[in-house]
Specification:
With about 260 residues, the protein is mainly α. The protein has a single domain, classed as Urease accessory protein UreF. The protein contains eleven helices and no strands. The protein is globular, with a radius of gyration of 19 Å. It starts with 12 loop residues before the first helix and ends in a 10-residue tail after the last helix.
Amino acid sequence: MPRIAPRPTPLSAEARLHLMWLASPALPVGGFSYSEGLEAAIDAGLVTSEAEAAHWLRDQLLLAVARSDLAVVARAVPAWQRHDLARVRELNDWVVQTRETAELRLQTEQMGRSLVEWLRNGEKSLQPAPTNTAATTADPRLAHCAALPPAPTWPVAFALAVAQCLPTPTGRADGEAALREALLSFTFGWAENMVQAAIKAVPFGQSAGQRILRALIDAIPAAIDHAMSLPDSQRQAFTPMLAILSARHETQYSRLFRS
């Protein structure tokens, strides 16, 4: 008879809440100050309405985020969990080397540094609360992340935060289920932040923003499936139009965002 795969162990309420915490645009890492080229697209007349903003962000999710940063998080979380520091360094190097403009590189490095600093300060850490009054031992992975040259990047630092708050997987099914939850957190945080950028810069109202967010939510599961299935040889960061717009944005006369 065929073997029945074991049902994954559900995440605890605490772990789920920690992932929601990491996804929040209120997390003090500066994500709200970036539009990832969207503001330049608006200035160029490529995004002028709710429909165009929804189409732009969905394309960015599927063609850029899913094939790049989301795929890196999918590989970096298990690397941090098994303390594979060489693999972490390799993934961080890839992120640094594939940023197509100076401001996109600045964004990933600044947000990565800010998240590491937040984890250091604890707010005061995503690690489970100690069961006694003894001080907890500092996580050595945090020091390694902080020392990544030239800086820890956002997807790699985010993956460490996830590894700290998720339980160590006891089997493949548990590991994949928990990783999927983490990727949902990462992607929803990106989507919510980008919709807020569109609301401010197009501009349009909150109801329009919620409709765009609904469309992005519908596309997120497929983006996560794609990211989890990508081998290293197919991971890519190649978005020529976005790169050109980002380069133009660096000298844009009037702007709200840093990218």
